[in-house]
DNA sequence: TGACATTATAAAATATTTTTATAGTAGCTG
DNA sequence: CAGCTACTATAAAAATATTTTATAATGTCA
């Protein structure tokens, strides 16, 4: 069976229009008709109902079922392509969210260079959702991801290598600056400067606000720790961050004393189906040795 | 890309011999040669090394990686075939291990008949390992499985619907027959009649013997509860079973008082990719209503 | 009714896959 | 070392499969 037919079929389900699918793939319209017929013959079941009365195309249960598998098959193929390309170019495509890259990558870079691995590493920056997607379709071989729960995804192996608590950072002249430790509930009336919502930090932060029953005043959001730190230094607000961050001069770090203290968990993640090359195993070993 | 090529490739990895693979598929030998070449061109990488000096065929890393995906793709296709066939025939292929079938199926059969579902259910008997495999490649749409931990498999959804504790069963004239409750550690010197090793029961049993640091005397194993019960009635030994079993007249049931008491968990399991038909949803609903 | 949008069909053209026939390479054996 | 065996590669031809072109069919809608 030709996988092209599955691609046609999937797109037909998207577009629900034979002619448009033909255009989409740059082929003639009968090509799509015959491809769908081939599939229907192969699986011995009607896949779509061409209801020209209501000008609609509906997918039969068989069709929906096949679509599931088609998606999976096409993704698998795509993954294979990416993955093998990385292999051939002797490259490790490593996904890194900016915060993790800033803190962890410099730590291992010297070692990587020494073991002549650095030149084979191609870093790909991105948010955690993006990176997870890129991992699944093979664009990356591995990724470092942050989370507040141990990662557990179908088709991905997550290998935890570090944990960091979150802290409260306040400006040097802030009323709380003398405190060493603090309960989260004491921050009820503070102004916050936080990361953008897509960051893992917010999941942890939201968990604490929910637990302590208050709606925080978030006066500003950024995706740059330096920016956040500068605003904290100027008493624009306080922030909630881990210590894997460059601390500014005019900022004070407070420990949280709450019973539930979310942690920032960093894991190295790769596909369950991915066979680690010697270089990749070396990279894993270095990370475990230096970062754990 | 033609999936046939992937099948040829997978078999080549198995057999490591082009000509034999050709025989296997009933095609000529150059067919395999060209198929592999096609794949190598498509993925831009050598997949196998034809080492005629050492009379060997080795798989390159790219080849191994592709083999992973090929396996997955071919299984997915196979699943689609089975699954759609069941759909077309309007049949629910339901996997049932014998013990579960005996206890649970009669309970729902009347309801199934009333809702005209019974005629659409095709039961497939088998051990839990077998059933899991059959589920994954689409031979069955659903299965009831027993386990002592909540089931958690990649690609399968497990929907727990019942739990039963395990009990100790002893003959009516056995010294322990007067006891209502007992600690497992008290059974250190008893003779046991148990299920064959493949049964879930043994995982629970082994856990308890390990926890209590003794090697049990297993005098006989069977895969038939009635047989086990009869032997218990005759004081050949005692047994460790749930209460989802036909109790014999001359057998007494004792509760276990241990802190850790494994439970027999029954779940209905189906593929994550499986789209439930109305009939299948109906079946699920009946099971939850009657069995939960 | 006629223009339009859509899918189906048949025949021809192309592309792909397989076969047949044969060559090449190396091991093994007498 | 010649000749046989086992294995894979290659080229040309044959067989299949897919796509295109051209056109039909069906129903909408103004």
From TrEMBL, chains A, B:
SUPFAM superfamilies: Periplasmic binding protein-like II (SSF53850), Winged helix' DNA-binding domain (SSF46785). Residues 1-58 form the HTH lysR-type domain. InterPro entries: HTH-type_LysR_regulators, LysR_HTH_N, LysR_subst-bd, WH-like_DNA-bd_sf, WH_DNA-bd_sf. Keywords: DNA-binding, Transcription, Transcription regulation. The keyword DNA-binding applies. Gene3D superfamilies: 3.40.190.290, Winged helix-like DNA-binding domain superfamily/Winged helix DNA-binding domain. Belongs to the LysR transcriptional regulatory family. This is LysR family transcriptional regulator. It comes from Lactiplantibacillus dongliensis.
